[in-house]
Prior knowledge:
This protein is of the alpha/beta class. Helix content is 31%, strand content 21%.
Amino acid sequence: MKKVFIDGSSGTTGLRIRERLAERGDIELVTVPYEMRHDQETRKKAMEEADIVFLCLPDDAAREAAAFAPEDTVIIDTSTAHRIDPDWTYGMAELSGQKEKIRNAKRIANPGCHASGFIALVQPLIEAGIVKTDALLTCFSLTGYSGGGKKMIAQYEEGNDPLLEAPRMYGLTQKHKHLPEMRVVCGLQNDPVFCPVVADYYSGMETVVSLFGSEINGTLEDIKNVFRKKYADGLIRYAESADESGFMSASSCRDTDIMEVSVYGNEDRILLVSRFDNLGKGASGAAIQNMNIVIGADETEGLVTGGMR
């Protein structure tokens, strides 16, 4: 039985990880008293006792915790802090050759939610030579408010602000914290123009990348074939036709740990779409998937792999 400590178990990602792991017979959760949750020595002792540690902390706190964590303990960091750090393994198992790296890693950086949707769409096309590394890409990504953490959840659920009743763009300065990850992991030379949007629903994410046929090396069918082969099984799945009578809901994969990838448009203008739960494959689901790989369990153990539809 593997021992697991969740540092930051009261946040949205930590809570869902704890809920998933509490039901498993192969995991023993290491806990600390609530009043000692910020005490460094108490947390360090918990890390020393554990085989796996999830860091579900703000970036600065995650860097601090990683610095005093035992070298032989496997650390899975769900923050942004280490995602492009060359000393950390990027925890997206679906990337070519990445699963083996994760299996042998002691320091794993869990992917960001928006970034996961973007990378799942773009990286395989760059690898196949369909999209060039110097491409100028655009992306918009719709998310539920749970992605903003406890403060944003409280703001939406209090229901006192009429501005929260409609979708809201953010990241307007084009300095969103997921941009470096999106560029580096895909091997792009340029950051995409990125427009994240938060809306008045709890969870679910829909990430869209648009392409002009004249700017790619291939066809609409070539793109579909790449995704068919890449995502034939596993937690990321290619969906031949996933719309709902001409509409696409961002909630289609809510409360699951899967991601659905699909392609729309025509030979001139192409839409790449990924849909998933921002707290599932966009956070806690991916973290548990990484843990499963490390401990040699089935990759989907303890995860919800059935879609809503």
